[in-house]
Write a structure and sequence with these properties.
The protein is α+β, with helices and mostly antiparallel strands. The protein is built from 20 helices and 17 strands. The protein has a 5-stranded mixed beta sheet with strand order 1-2-4-3-5, with helices on both faces. A 4-stranded antiparallel beta sheet has the order 6-10-8-7. Helix 1 packs antiparallel against helix 2. The radius of gyration is 37 Å and the shape is elongated.
């Protein structure tokens, strides 16, 4: 929360500075333009750019293939824009010992802000009560005006009160203190405030002042808004044909009689710097409208203000959606991480222990040779909160050596009662990113592979008999069985080494071969349909997982005298051809040892 608020204040501050520079460029033009610029700077405090970024993330303007023609350049631009517009992190990662301090700091900041907000709101509320009292004490008067006019016995300056139904409030006896031309000019000024809806704009800025009372620019913008709105009304009064000296004398006489209005949310005649206003009125300089170049610059600036954050949202849509999805996930409310070297009796691969709302990993490394490693478990096997049998293992590159050798025991409790798959997938991802500061991405590279193709004589595969068993897809959760049904046999056996792919496509068979061979296997056979495949083979250099040092060596038993895996595949009318092909990798960008607790 603190990071998001800090980013918003950072953006609003620079937006106000930019608006100030634009007003300097328009200093010789109409005050109405400068008033709108200052009001846009004020309103920016109510409109976080994050809201426009979120809006952009939901827009779908082009087909997926055409959204970003140059993804690398777009990513670089997107990153630069994020760094400039959001220099402070949205969340701060603190150790467990700092969480209590953080909570107290947040409560203290919130308490100070609430006191300031209440003080400003109380001042505005007292002003509103004065307005109500002045209106109740007033009586209707008949003057030529487009709004209701009332006479108040108090010593207050002429002004317009109210938002939806404005009332022109005049002090009793003002017609005796001003000449008719002076009174007409003063009334023209007040009716100008009505046409411009100045009370509405003033009320909006008062809300902003109450919310952001601690920001000095907010109060400075408020003073500029009053200054420019009064000058804008002065310019309009003179454009209606009122004599400058008569109008100036009317303002001075009002100031002599009613020095300052005690009311808020009132557009009066004596606001802003009186000396500068009188000088400007007496000069009666013709104020030019902005030329084409200035209008174009103003238009471009306005469009860019809206378009840039929306474009940032479009470019970062996948990231924003992922963050939104992550925010909606259940979290581990407490977690303990210990290095296994500090806990006697725990052995490598002790296994994952799961119970209702609790995950215990046993002693495992961040990156194991099989799917038991923390990263493989979280980002591959249960990546989306569902079990996936394929890919069994995605190679991990990058990162320090300790991610393969040091073992960690994680014991975590969830705030709700999520599924076991959710705890081992998305929730474990969030824990690794928080406690290990893990940053990881997926990358596809060209590597040596085997291409599964058909022999010249054609395949000798046995077609699958529909209904004999329920196929086990490798990429989705298993289908539910009913009474009398069984799953098809899909496995990598150990004693003897065997691959069974019953009710499987050749693509799924290739994926199973990927688990036992020394390089990935891709399906280039071009054969559709499902088959019953049984493959027995001898252990060789091409099946390194079964050799000494491999993760299946201890379970493989004595070497088989059967055919090599290549010969066994040829007996099916297929063959494996060495070639180059795509392979997905998990690339570690950053990781740190966790602080133990």
């Amino acid at each position: 929360m603190i990071g998001e608020l800090t980013n918003h204040l950072w953006q609003s501050t620079w937006f106000a500075v930019a608006a100030g520079l634009l007003t300097a460029a328009f200093r010789k033009n109409r005050a109405q333009v400068r008033h709108w610029l200052w009001f846009s700077a004020s309103f920016k405090f109510l409109l976080p750019f994050a809201l426009l970024v979120t809006l952009g993330s939901h827009l779908q303007w082009a087909p997926a293939a055409q959204k970003i023609a140059t993804p690398i350049a777009a990513s670089a631009v997107s990153f630069t824009m994020r760094q400039v517009s959001r220099p402070f992190p949205d969340t701060l990662t603190l150790g467990p010992s700092m969480k209590g301090t953080r909570d107290w700091a947040l409560l203290t900041i919130l308490g100070v802000w609430a006191c300031g907000f209440a003080s400003v709101a109380l001042i505005r509320f007292r002003g509103w009560l004065r307005i109500r009292a002045a209106i109740r004490a007033s009586t209707p008067i008949d003057i030529p005006a487009t709004v209701q006019a009332r006479s108040s016995p108090g010593l207050l300056e002429p002004g317009v009160v109210g938002l939806l139904r404005p009332i022109l409030l005049l002090p009793a006896g003002i017609e005796k203190r001003l000449t008719p031309p002076q009174l007409a000019a003063v009334l023209a000024h007040e009716l100008c405030h009505v046409r411009r809806r100045d009370n509405l704009f003033a009320a909006i800025h008062m809300i902003i002042e109450a919310m952001f009372w601690f920001h000095p620019l907010v109060w400075w913008i408020g003073a500029k808004l009053v200054e420019e709105r009064e000058r804008a009304c002065d310019e309009e009064v003179l454009s209606l044909g009122n004599e400058p000296h008569v109008y100036a004398e009317g303002i001075v006489n009002v100031c002599k009689l009613y020095v300052e209005s005690p009311l808020v949310c009132v557009s009066g005649v004596t606001g802003s710097s009186l000396k500068k206003r009188i000088e400007a009125i007496m000069t009666n300089r013709i104020v030019p409208r902005p030329n084409f170049a200035k209008k174009a610059a103003l238009t471009v600036a306005g469009i860019a203000t809206l378009a840039v954050p929306i474009a940032l949202g479009v470019m970062n849509a996948p990231l924003i959606r992922a963050q939104s999805a992550a925010a909606a996930l259940p979290k581990f409310e407490a977690s303990t991480i210990r290095r296994c070297s500090d806990k006697p009796g725990l052995m490598r691969g002790a296994g994952y222990s799961l119970s209702a709302g609790r995950l215990n990993t046993g002693c495992v490394a961040m990156a194991e040779a099989d799917s038991t490693g923390l990263i493989q478990r979280a980002y591959v096997r249960f990546s989306d909160g569902r079990p996936h049998f394929w890919p069994g293992v995605v190679p991990i590159t990058g990162g320090p050596a300790w991610i393969h050798s040091e073992l960690f025991d994680i014991d975590a409790r969830a705030e709700r009662n999520p599924s076991e798959e959710m705890m081992q997938g998305p929730m474990l991802q969030a824990l690794l990113e928080d406690r290990f500061q893990l940053k990881i991405h997926r990358e596809t590279r060209e590597v040596p592979v085997y291409a599964l193709t058909v022999e010249q004589g054609g395949s000798r595969l046995k077609p699958f008999e529909e209904g004999s068993c329920i196929a086990m897809p490798l990429k989705v959760p298993l289908p539910t069985l009913v009474l009398g049904q069984r799953y098809c046999k899909v496995r990598v056996g150990i004693q003897p080494p065997v691959v069974d792919a019953q009710g499987s496509t050749l693509t799924e068979f290739a994926q199973l071969l990927d688990l036992v061979l020394d390089r990935p296997v891709i399906d280039n056979a071009g054969i559709t349909g499902k088959f019953d495949i049984h493959l027995e083979f001898a252990i060789s250099e091409a099946t390194p997982r079964f050799l000494p040092g491999g993760d299946l060596a201890d379970q493989a038993g004595p070497a088989s005298a059967g055919p090599s895996v290549f010969t066994a595949i040829q007996q099916l009318g297929l063959k494996l051809e060495p070639t180059q092909g795509p392979r997905e990798f998990l690339v570690i960008d950053h990781v740190e040892r966790p602080s133990e607790n």
